[in-house]
Design brief:
26 helices, BCCT_CS, transmembrane helix, transmembrane transporter activity, Choline/glycine/proline betaine transport protein
Length: 671
């Protein structure tokens, strides 16, 4: 059976089986008892949103600040891969794919609906029409801007870094490597991947379910189908999921890449049509003013919990917190996909592109569509669009009726929604198979097809039973624990980046500076030796002590009184020259230990090591500068090193500007 399993599938049973049990169980429960399941999950969701909304606020804020810090920090030049790695995709293809996966159908679904819902919301009824329009644009920018992409960016960057820099599997478990080390290969790693697979499946299923409803509604308005019913939704899903499966089986370099390119071009053309055919001057002005308002309000929006505005708190929970939870729940899927296509980019390039470019496009898109809808509602529609704010499935197509070439634009919109549907589904199928196989290569095509069929069947089952809302609540609930996991990603990533930076910046040891080739055999023996405590004690008591004795004698010839101090536990010896007015000169050597990598214990081509603790003689100084390993110094070289530090000491105390740093008040710590 094991041989059959290896030949026929690349699925990891420890990840796939628990995930499928949980996914199918929740979907069946939502389909059998949609009202009961939705009510139960809503109680949990509402408790989280009301009592733990601050977790989302702080988490998302940390994500934004962290990525901005990385972009401008010294870590920005680190490449996602080897130092000579080149990107696998052109900049246009890369941006197209990450954009299509990151927002997709949501842009079409909410581009008119969200601004209109903010604009017509009763909570803002006391404001003037102009203030409500500005409010609608500002909050739409806030929900679709940098904060959303920062959530995706943290997961995508963590995955890309550990996959291509550490050469670990493209899996969420890999992001915990600095914290868990090899434990990521076992139960803990499986738990993390199960969570990611379930979250990805739920997020894609609900989004695609809503997308099918919007496509059906648009086709009905255009008289392509007579009604919006489950029969036609089955037909739509059958056609679109088949296209998605075909695209996913074709791979990233063919299906997903080509569709994403077509998608971004189509979206730009539609955007230009609406901009030119709509109230152009108004839209450009509102976009310009909206950017300024967003920048000015950035921090107040970011930290605002509406705790002093009880009347707006329900709106805050149902919009801002829901969005943060929604983006977080989608981040395993989008992050995995972004990571897959980002090999070879630098961290600065990755963060800049992921945060700024999609955000800017979203702002333009929302300004053109949302701004046009509000303008038409005020000047042409006489409030008809506001009245439809609660019906987002049909709102986009009703909005297009106020533009020239309505029918042509409507067909373009449906085409774009279909392409978004396919690109979201095919990249989702690709990502789910990647998680379930621990990023195994050359998976059989039937696996990819099976994920697509499962996605279609469960989405249709929930559509028919009315269980999509329950599944959406489940998706939002999973966002809370995953926000904590993402914070741990940041801790893990910073630990790894710090080590990465030190690794490439680490210079040769100071003890190698005076080397010549005269004693290379002895040097080699020292380099490949790992010492125990007793051998280092012996080195300090002999070579170091003898060097200090010779120095003490030579100093005396120049009427300089040097003193040798010796201490135990741990052993340390130092040579000290006391001063009454200025600091004492001190050069010492102590026995220190360090932990060595477990890999050294098992690697056959590395020096033989019996314990993961080794000892070495480390220098230290009277001014608390960081010392270094001196075990590779000969006695003469050590004497030379002491004299270098003494010459530095004399030069420092001779400068008048250094008087505040050389007071004898510090000498008490050496007595």
């Amino acid at each position: 059976m094991q041989q059959f399993h290896k030949r026929r599938t690349t699925l990891s049973m420890g990840v796939t089986v628990p995930s499928l049990v949980f996914i199918i169980g929740i979907c069946v429960l939502s389909a059998i008892s949609p009202d009961f399941t939705e009510d139960l999950l809503n109680v949990v969701k509402n408790f989280i949103f009301v009592n733990l909304n601050w977790v989302y606020v702080w988490s998302v804020t940390i994500f934004v600040l962290f990525l901005i810090y990385l972009m401008v920090s010294k870590y920005g030049n680190i490449r996602l891969g080897r130092n000579n790695s080149k990107p696998d995709y052109s900049f246009f293809s890369w941006i197209s794919m990450l954009f299509a996966a990151g927002m997709g159908i949501g842009l079409m679904y909410f581009s008119v609906a969200e601004p209109m819902q903010h604009y017509s919301n009763e909570i803002f009824a006391e404001k003037t029409v102009v203030q409500r329009a500005q409010n609608a644009q500002l909050y739409t920018f806030f929900h679709w801007g940098i904060h959303a992409w920062a959530i995706y960016g943290v997961v995508g960057l963590s995955l890309a870094y550990f996959t291509y820099r550490y050469r670990l599997p493209l899996s969420l478990r890999s992001c915990f490597y600095p914290l868990l080390k090899d434990k990521i290969k076992g139960r803990w790693g499986n738990i993390i991947d199960v969570f990611a697979l379930c979250s990805t499946f739920f997020g894609i299923t609900t989004t695609l379910g809503f997308g099918v409803v919007q496509i059906n509604s648009g086709l009905q308005i255009l008289n392509v189908v007579p009604e919006s019913s489950f029969v036609y939704q089955v037909m739509i899903v059958a056609v679109l999921v088949s296209l998605s499966i075909f695209s996913a089986v074709s791979g990233l370099d063919k299906g997903v890449k080509i569709l994403s390119g077509i998608n971004i071009i189509s979206v730009i053309l539609l955007l230009l049509f609406v901009l030119i055919l709509g109230p152009t001057v108004y839209l450009i002005g509102s976009f310009t003013e909206g950017i300024g308002t967003y920048i000015n309000s950035f921090f107040s929006l970011t930290f605002n919990t509406h705790i002093y505005e009880e009347n707006t708190q329900p709106w805050f929970y149902n919009w801002t917190i829901l969005y943060w939870a929604w983006w977080i729940s989608w981040s395993p899927y989008v992050g995995l996909f972004i990571a897959k296509i980002s090999k070879g980019r630098t961290i600065r390039e990755f963060v800049g592109a992921v945060l700024i470019l999609p955000t800017l496009f979203n702002f333009i898109w929302m300004s053109v569509f949302g701004g046009s809808a509000i303008w038409f509602d005020l000047h042409t529609a006489n409030g008809a669009l506001s009245a439809l704010a609660g019906n987002p499935d049909a709102l986009m197509f009703s909005f297009l009726e106020y533009l020239p070439l309505t029918r042509a634009l409507s067909f373009i919109v449906i085409s774009i929604i279909i392409i978004f549907f396919v690109t979201s589904a095919d990249s989702g199928i690709f990502v789910m198979n990647s998680i379930a196989t621990k990023n195994a290569e050359n998976s059989p095509k039937w696996q990819t097809i099976s994920w697509g069929i499962l996605l279609a069947v469960l989405a249709l089952m929930l559509l028919n039973a009315g269980g999509l809302a329950a599944l959406q609540s489940m998706t939002l609930i999973t966002a809370l624990p995953f926000s904590i996991i993402m914070l741990l990603f940041i801790v893990s990533l910073m630990k790894a980046l710090s080590i990465d930076r030190k690794y490439y910046e680490k210079d040769f040891s100071r003890t190698t500076v005076p080397w010549s080739g005269a004693s290379w055999k002895e040097r080699l023996k020292q380099i490949v030796s790992f010492h125990d405590k007793l051998s280092v004690d012996e080195f300090i008591n002999t070579s170091i002590h003898e060097a200090f004795i010779e120095l003490e004698s030579e100093f005396a010839k120049s009427n300089i009184q040097a003193k040798i101090n010796s201490y135990e536990n741990p052993l340390r010896i130092e040579i000290e020259i006391k001063h009454n007015i200025v600091n004492n000169f001190l050069y010492g050597v102590k026995n220190e230990s360090r932990i060595i990598s477990d890999y050294l214990l098992t690697d056959e081509n590395l020096p033989e090591v019996n314990d993961n603790v080794t000892y070495f003689p480390k220098s230290y100084f009277g001014d608390d500068r960081e010392g270094y390993d001196v075990q590779l110094f000969t006695k003469i070289e050590l004497i030379s090193d002491v004299l270098k530090h003494y010459e530095r000491f004399l030069e420092i105390i001779s400068e008048e500007n250094n008087e505040m740093f050389i007071s004898s008040d510090l000498n008490h710590k050496y007595k």
